[in-house]
Amino acid sequence: MIAAMNQPRAAIASAGVAALLLLLVPMRGSNAPLLLDLPLRGSPAGLAETATPIVVVIAGLLALRWWPWLLAAAALLTLAAMVSHPAGNVAPDWLFPLLPAARPLTVIAVFAAAQSLIGRGHTRLGAVLAGLSVGVALIASASSQLWWFLTQGEISHWHVAFATVALAALAPAVWVLRSGDEAARPGGLLSRPIIAGGLAVALAIPLSLITTERLAELVGVPQDALYRHADAENAIIAAVTLVVVAVLAAIAGPWPLGGALTAALAQFAAAAPLLLAMSALRASVAPWLAVVGGLALGAALAAGRRRFPLAAAVTVAAAVALLIAYSATIGHPEKLADQQRVIPAMLIAVLVTAAAVAVVGATTTALAPSGTAPATLGPLAGVLALGGMQVVDSGYFSGSGAAMKSLPSSEYLGVSVWLLFAAAAAAGGLGLARHWSDRRAERRLAEQIRREAAEAERNRLARPIHDGVLQVLALVQRHGAELGGTGAELASLAGEQEVALRTLLSGGATAPSARGRAEPGDLRTALTALASPTVEVAAPAGPVPLPQPAAAEVTAAVEAALDNVRRHAGPDARAWVLLEDEGDGVRITVRDNGTGFDPARLGEAAGEGRLGVAQSIRGRIEDLGGTTDIFSRPGQGTEIEIWVPR
To answer: How far apart are CA 596 and CA 541, in angstroms?
Structure first.
């Protein structure tokens, strides 16, 4: 059995390694050092090329349970992108529009794998896989110098090797999960997060139809102004994208909204500082040390039990390190790259990478229980991060992720400091929300266990009571009338108590006596029915609604109080019942003009085993969360005040 349980885990872990290898390959045409790489807007002339990868990504969202096959398709597309290098141009024309879908399919599949691991109980492994995917993708696309040091110019050969090994590593997952992986898609085929994620990536299609002239008309600026400032046009499109995708995330639910914002902040905030650090560490072994150190630290934090506060702490540390570098260079941190300052650059690279890995890993554990991790951390968070980066500096990242040579400006790095602080706050808030949600789920589970235990105990007691007490009551009911005198009344009472006891054993409330039959949930009707020549009932003119079980219990408690008046207050005693509706609860006062009693008698009666007041009145009301106050003095009558919350 243990081997059967470990088989999917090993297969999914092998597929996770394959995904990380694919994410090491910066695809041709990449425009930003982020996890997801899809255009926010295409051109009207190339609408087909823009729409094709988007359609493939949406299909991938709908096929989450077959994520190993999605990952295999991404590996094949990556290989095709390698053989279709501009120098050779080997791939057929119909394949080129599909190539940009390789990275998004990989992202969706890796988060589906992480969600599957968490759903199967391997939370630490799932968090580490999700976090490493972001760290590897950021490093691969932000560190052009690292790639040059690794490959000495032969990048395509390494990429082909990575994609080939990834295909081989995928084989166990494809075989073990050949019939699908339900743990990767607990939210349903057309859940709100999947629809929101599909609409987020599809937003590029309508935005592609907005020409510069139309955009100038919409924002009320001259056309030549947008022609002169292309960055402004891109920033407007990115701002529109941010607003629309944020609304889609909110519609998807509170967890997708919080998770998408947290992951997007972590990626966006880490991109520029990581590029700066890798530029300062070029042509040395330092990049390797920084990469391994950052990924290892982030993975260790994501795997910890206190992953959310730890992720927030390392993100704050990264922000502080960058802020110190900003101050030490007199507002020009790009000097670290110009002067190749290894120690501060390594510190920034390690902390920023660890922050991105830890935040996204922790966020995945918060989203996995609701089944929203792939759609939220893939399309929603990815598009938000791309839009945010383009809003801050839409024209900054030009060229492919593997060939970027420009350094981030000091203003851009200043924004990254505050974004890191915001990502830390978001991670802390998400962790707090997850903690509250888990505590509430635990309380609900405890309540369910308590009810099941009570039901089991009721069933256990029902058997001997059915064999003994109920049979005796039934016998008295049948033959009581034959005794003459009070025998008929005794038979009637035995019949009522038999019905009440059977109702109690079946899980219902004690049935009211014939004197107090009431309409369901209307306490006024129930108590008014208790009126008699010696009992006056005062109640509001309209109904006093109360849940039916509570109304029955309150009625039974009032009946018990009136029964005590008849038995102990004297033959000439009268009783008054006052019902008051107080909005958040109801108050019932039962007062009589009888002989009264010494309050100490209640404790003496309970000690002697006479529990009429303790159980029939106080016990019933306490079970409803209410209170019972009893006031009495010898010769001054008795007053019982009952309050029950709604």
So the answer is: 31
